[in-house]
Amino acid sequence: MTTTTATAPTYGTELRLLIGGESITADQRKTIPVHDPASGAEIGRLPVATDEDLANALASAQRGFARWRKTSAYDRGVVLRKAAQLIRERAEPIARTLTLEQGKPLAEARLEIFATADIIEWCGEEGRRTYGRVVPSRSETVRQTVLREPVGPVAAFTPWNFPAITPGRKLAGALGAGCSIIIKPSEETPGTALMLVDALRDAGLPEDVVNVVFGDPPHISETLIASPIIRKISFTGSTAVGKHLARLAANGLKRATLELGGHAPVIVSEKADLDKAVKMSVSSKFRNAGQVCVSPSRFIVHESIEKRFTEAFAAKASTLRVGHGLEETTQMGSLANERRHSAIRDLVEDARQRGGKVHTGGDSIDSPGYFFSPTVFSDVPGDARVLTEEPFGPIAVISQYRELSEAIAMANALPYGLAAYAFTQDLAESIALSNGIESGMIGINHFGIAFAEIPFGGVKDSGYGSEGGTEGFEGYLVTKSVTMA
Fold first, then answer.
1. Which residue ranges form the domains of the chain, and what is each CATH number?
2. CB 3.0–4.6 Å: which of 110, 167, 415, 453 could bond 95 by disulfide?
3. Alpha helix (H) residue ranges in 203-291
4. 3-state class of 414 per DSSP?
5. Does pTM surpass 0.85?
6. What residues are labeled active site?
7. Rounded CA gap, 481 and 405, in Å?
8. For 331-378, what is each residue's pLDDT tens digit?
């Protein structure tokens, strides 16, 4: 493993609140710092919304909804498609901002920006197809119809690990369905979301339709969700916080889409293409330094190939080039903050103390920023923290199984059910895995499970509702039946 460093440039966008037609900058409010996780340097100051700001954002969202819901689906689609075009044109500066504030390699940031543009464009198109229907009547003088209408103003809350795709999904779903939205992106990665909203506004989105606030997350979420103006919430983050927000939403009988934690198993059959499984698994595991809700983290490998898989996996992981994300040769960047760095150290130490064998990595990297080496474990007992808690970092744990039913039971043993993966060239095994694994998303022989046109969401403690696909619009629409005589 090698490391690289790079000098961080000036932060690429002005940090601000966007409320109605007003931009509220750092010199107008109390502020909190934003840091480059790869160097620890402060790169900006973010204004904190006051209670008056939140009240104004709610009033703005109410005005925006009254206007946007009356805008035709065709015209809404024009705005979203234009915004997607602008995001693609601005991909390089947005990607550099994303890398600077989040830490992932620039190549990954670019892919995220283009994927976000795809989502926004797709929702602009799909919004034109939120069809109702005509239901045959019992009387020739009565017409029965079913209409699909936007639910109302939305409050959305997004984390720091994907500063473009996660806000982009929520913005696109709400706007494509005809809803207004107040979004609170992560205070650690604010610039990327602001640049997305700039593109939407430059594409012709009315000012009141999207409002952006930052500050104290619990206070903001409690204030917005309690307001009768908000009719739906969308949250991506930890299971613990998601359960809390679900309770708040339930108090007002408000819809909720929750995309929560995961601990994705990867079953590798003795009938798998081993070289393909290793290559793809290493690439997916250490993407964004493992800070991905659908990151593969529990590798359940058939006993006949476990040794070969582990050796090949560790050898490939050990060659990854770790460094500042702005350096083009970097393959894995830093962790996003000290909290993750500390948590990964604790998980590794716990696994070691329980007898886990480290095949590569296992230590922090001695450099500025929050770097941790790509780490591969085997022989970790099932009650170790790294096998029961979402690791959300660059740790892969390899276990073995004998029978496929045992592997499926191991995959289903945790309360999480967001993503799961498997490698096998056997059709019967593929069907058994598809049917037996309890997960909202399953990838077989690849890790491609997150595209605009298919639903993204989990089961069990990984949440409910979907983002993406036609299913992603369901949470933003209400059903109205109309009978006319």
1. 2-260+462-484 (3.40.605.10), 264-451 (3.40.309.10)
2. 110
3. 217-226, 239-251, 274-285
4. coil
5. yes
6. 259, 293
7. 46
8. 999 999 999 999 999 999 999 999 999 999 999 999 999 999 999 999
